[in-house]
Design goal:
The complex is a heterodimer of chains A (661) and B (301). In chain A, the strands form two sheets. Chain A has a two-stranded antiparallel sheet with strand order 1-2. Helix content of chain A is 71%, strand content 4%. In chain A, α11 runs parallel beside α13. By secondary structure, chain A is mostly helical. Helices cover 72% and strands 1% of the residues of chain B. Classes of the chains: A mainly alpha (661), B mainly alpha (301).
């Protein structure tokens, strides 16, 4: 069964390149569905108590590669499969306009199937070497997917940025695996456990955390996300944000499951970094006017929330608290699912907007709810869910994480109490800011009047693009209304997270029951709303209705440019947090002698604090250093020949005098 | 169930008492205590005018806002009697279900395409964001003090230990009281009687609402006041028997309303640019409670 996961993509690539443009996406979709079935079957089996544990012989160099599919892998595989399948359907509709570019489509859809298979292999391969190969294939194929619009300079730049950062991540991972190899002589993941048993846990974990943290987007390793997500076509942004980023989380959770000591210290590190990540991400999301960039920053925020859950779980293992362990890891894993659902939904609907209006700048949009009502409702559902509002799924996982924090307060360690209360406050600020960020985005893109006349051409997207989004909403609502079912699956998935803590099921019973009951309360929220609405409809039948212009406070000729802008909406936040949100303004001052000023422009963009202050400086320093060696590459053939001769001479002399021994 | 009946009955007179206090303090005759309720009933009977810019969001938002407040009301307990819904961590549900209502009231303001309403929406989002940590640190400290995680259990166990907890309850009442002012857009954050749209927060957001929808929004406002009043009451009543607590409930509610009215008669609204700092300063009061709890429990070495 597992062999099908790579056999199907290999065949489908051949078909994709041979078939005409119209059939390429269909072939890719069929292939993706087949791979999803082939991997979903053993994943479901693993979650019902039949994990896979085999090995593949991979030549004399690597030897036996362990292939294990346990609850944790199964959980991620199912999430990957769902998101990739919806992405394939949505992408088919999204790329319809490129029918006459067969080579581009071939490359795109071939990478798509490879990418899907690589992600599944990342979840099941448990040999350092093979894992890195799968990891690398995943990074490369996703890079090819990102640069679909390769004729745009920014897209290529974003792609290269992504590629470079992913390789810094690989360096960390390689160092980690080699470290384990030198100590234990094995590349198998089990060797990591052996390593942790005999050595201090802190440093190796931090090396892996840095490696996986690049993928997940923890600050300050996040700077690829706000570039790559907007550059990629929307179905790819949705999948990247929904699942690739989560594979970083998978790696971190996998490493946590091997840990043997230092739980509390590591938990404190993870939770602190996570809450800062969350705050930083949502702060940037609330001020950005590019809506796909806004969603990318919001992904960083949600990674922070997931990280808080993982941190609570780690502290739970360390303090032998099964309730914290359950709430922390349970909340984190459920939030991984929830975020993959609503973030892909948001990216798909944002993609529909982009497809119709050809702009990612919110300030040029407005009033789209009249032209694209379905997309507007879809975006609204995603926005409410990502803000953690009750009748939607985001609330369930955020609630578990909140409860974990409150459980964590109840302890004797003063440091832990302080940390937990501050994280609690941080998480509540994250919630408040995400309300601001999403009311701003939804309000500016979909409500009010069009700010740009070109938008009048926008109309609702095709059914092929809408149906995958409806399916995502259906799954989201199932999480919101029947959380008990998902929690029972999460319990299986997190069973292997700790080897030192024995969880007594009775200890977590009350919270399992509460989590299950949240569905009922969500239903009650919906019920009360529907009831009020029905009463309203009944009453309104008898009342006169009238229409008129918006009250302009006495002014009778308002126009669409007088509406409150997205920038103005979030400006107070930008002002208060200006030390974290550097702004680049471009404008020309009015000269004293300029009596009749000419037409002028004012441009202000928020910049990424870490990128602007750290990464750019490091890059500049490296470039300057590399500049000293520029004389070597001077473009003269003669010098290049000379280098060859010098090299041969050196090798000859070294050999002749036997120095190379 | 008891709490729901009490909150609804307090909602009937809360805003009326505020207005009556203001009229007495400013030497006016003033309307009766039940005038706000009469206004709402009148609004329910009226027709509706919609702006041509608005969409269905504008029509649905008041309903959702109202039901979110109702839902929040169901969570609030009264002394020994639980709210209709009570579970571990229900105060998180309380905060987030109110956020749902706020989300819709903000986007309905943006739906009108008016710059004034957008301005109010922006301020509402900012201020409520800053009020969140104060509320959560407060509830977290109380959870630490009592070892409980639901509203009813926290309030019931609050005063079982030393009497110093009443001092903390006073501070907590201040925080909840200020959150009440922020949530209901009252002085010193917002001036409900201002005449200039530029300086409004909540009032400007509902400029375009009329008829039944406006009635829903206003009645939700009345209930919201009473909900926060009930929270303040709960900080003090603990496990006293009902014959004391029910009169106490009304006494504290009336007192809260009179104080609100007094503040509105003698104070001016804060400068808009300083509101954010002021609200964030509430968090430090919450932190004070937190440190008080730590000292009470002897966790400081």
């Amino acid at each position: 069964m597992l062999h099908l996961i790579w056999v199907i993509p290999v065949f489908s690539i051949a078909f994709i390149s041979a078939l005409p443009s119209g059939s390429k996406p269909v072939t890719a979709t069929i292939s993706v569905i087949l791979v999803a079935l082939a991997s979903g079957w053993p994943a479901v089996a693993a979650l019902t108590g039949h994990p896979v544990d085999t090995s593949i012989y991979a030549g004399s160099l690597i030897g036996d590669v362990a292939v294990r599919l346990d609850g944790l892998s199964a959980w991620f595989i199912l999430i990957i499969n769902f998101t990739v399948v919806t992405g394939a359907f949505f992408g088919t509709g999204y790329l319809k306009a490129h029918q006459n570019e067969p080579s581009r489509l071939s490359l795109h859809w071939s990478s798509f199937v490879v990418f899907h298979a690589a992600m599944i292999f990342v979840c099941i391969l448990q040999n350092g070497f093979a894992f890195l190969v799968a990891w690398e294939i995943m990074s490369l194929s996703s890079m090819v997917l990102v640069i679909f619009d390769h004729h745009k300079v920014e897209t290529l730049k974003a792609g290269i940025n992504y590629l470079v950062q992913m390789h810094i991540s690989v360096v960390f991972l390689t160092v980690g695996f080699i470290w384990v190899y030198t100590q234990t002589g094995s590349m198998d993941f089990d060797a990591i456990r052996t390593f942790f048993k005999g050595n201090p846990n802190l440093w190796l974990f931090l090396v892996f955390f840095a490696g996986f943290g690049f993928k997940a987007g923890f600050i300050p390793l996040h700077s690829w996300l706000p570039h790559a997500h907007p550059a990629a076509p929307s179905h790819i942004s949705g999948i990247m944000s929904g699942v690739i980023v989560k594979l970083g989380i998978y790696g971190i959770l996998r490493m946590i499951s091997y840990l043997q000591s230092d739980f509390i210290l590591l938990g404190e590190i993870v939770i602190t970094l996570s809450v800062l990540t969350g705050l930083y991400g949502i702060l940037n999301a609330s001020v950005n006017r590019d809506f796909k960039k806004m969603l990318a920053y919001c992904t960083i925020e949600n990674i922070g929330i997931i990280g808080i859950g993982a941190g609570i779980g780690l502290i739970g293992i360390g303090t032998k608290s099964p309730v914290m362990y359950f709430l922390g890891f349970g909340g984190a894993l459920l939030h991984v699912l929830n975020h993959s659902l609503f973030k892909s939904l948001l990216f798909y609907s944002a993609g529909s907007v982009y497809l119709q209006t050809h702009t990612r700048d919110m300030e040029k949009l407005g009033g789209l709810i009249k032209r694209m009502p379905k997309t507007a409702v879809i975006f609204l559902v995603g926005a409410l869910a990502i803000g953690g509002m009750p009748p939607f799924n985001g609330f369930v996982s955020e609630f578990l994480i909140y409860c974990g924090l409150i459980q964590g307060i109840d302890t004797d360690s003063i440091y832990q109490i302080m940390l937990m209360i501050l994280v609690l406050a941080g998480l509540s600020v994250i919630g408040g800011l995400s309300l601001l960020a999403f009311t701003k985005s939804f309000g500016t893109i979909f409500l009010g009047q069009p700010r740009d006349p070109r938008q009048h051409e926008a109309h609702e997207v095709s059914r092929l693009m809408l149906i995958p989004q409806y399916i995502i909403i259906a799954v989201m609502m199932s999480v919101a209304l029947v959380p008990g079912l998902y929690m029972s699956i999460v319990k299986v998935a997190m069973a292997g997270m700790s080897e030192t803590l024995i969880v007594d099921p009775a200890a977590v019973d009350t919270y399992s029951a509460t989590a299950a009951n949240i569905g009922l309360f969500s239903l009650l929220v919906i019920g009360i709303t529907v009831l009020t609405w029905l009463i309203r409809v009944q009453v309104m039948k008898k009342r006169p209705l009238a229409e008129g212009p918006t009250w302009g406070c006495g002014y009778v000729a308002p126009n669409s440019t007088m509406q409150y802008t997205a920038r103005a909406f979030s400006k107070p936040v930008g002002k208060i947090f200006d030390f974290l949100l550097p702004e680049k303004k471009q404008y020309r001052e009015l000269e004293p002698a300029e009596i009749f000023p000419s037409h002028r422009k004012y441009n202000a963009q928020y910049r990424d604090f870490f990128e602007f202050n750290f990464i750019d400086n490091i890059t500049r320093f490296l470039l300057k250093g590399a500049g000293y060696f520029r004389f070597i590459q001077n473009g003269r053939t003669q010098s290049y020949l000379l280098y060859g001769i010098v090299f041969i001479l050196v090798v000859f002399l070294l050999t002749a005098f036997n120095i190379l021994q | 169930m008891l709490s729901v009946i009490l909150i609804l009955s307090a909602a009937l007179f809360f805003t009326g008492v505020i207005n009556r206090t203001k009229s007495i303090l400013t030497g006016r005759k003033g309307p009766g205590v039940l005038q706000p309720v009469k206004d709402i009933i009148r609004l329910f009977k009226k027709g509706v005018v919609y702006s041509t810019t608005t969409s269905f969001i504008f029509q649905a938002a008041p309903t959702i806002y109202f039901s979110s407040v109702i839902m929040a009301m169901l969570v609030v307990p009264f002394g020994q009697s639980k709210g209709l819904i009570s579970f571990q961590g229900d105060f998180i549900f309380f905060a987030y279900v109110l956020a749902l209502g706020k989300f819709f009231s903000i986007i309905s303001a943006m739906d009108t395409g008016s710059s004034f309403e957008g301005m109010g929406a922006s301020r509402e989002a900012l201020y409520s964001m800053f009020a969140e940590p104060a509320f959560f640190i407060l509830m977290g400290s109380m959870a630490l003090l009592t070892g409980q995680t639901s509203f009813q259990e926290i309030f019931a166990d609050l005063h079982l230990g030393s009497p110093i907890s009443y001092a903390l309850a006073m501070l907590a009442a201040f925080v909840v009281g200020m959150v009440m002012m922020i949530e209901n857009s009252r002085m010193p954050i917002d001036d409900p009687k201002t005449h200039l749209e530029l300086t409004m927060i909540h009032e400007v957001m509902i400029l375009d609402n009329s008829g039944f929808d406006l009635g829903l929004i206003l009645s939700a406002g009345l209930i919201k006041f009473a909900i926060y009043g009930a929270l303040i009451v709960n900080l003090f009543i603990g496990m006293f028997p009902y014959e004391y607590t029910i009169p106490m409930f009304f006494a504290i509610q009336v007192m809260a309303a009179v104080i609100t009215g007094g503040i509105e008669s003698f104070m001016a609204r804060f400068r808009m640019s300083h509101n954010a700092q002021f609200i964030f300063a509430l968090t430090s009061v919450s932190l004070l409670i937190f440190f008080g709890v730590l000292m009470l429990l002897g966790k400081f070495i």
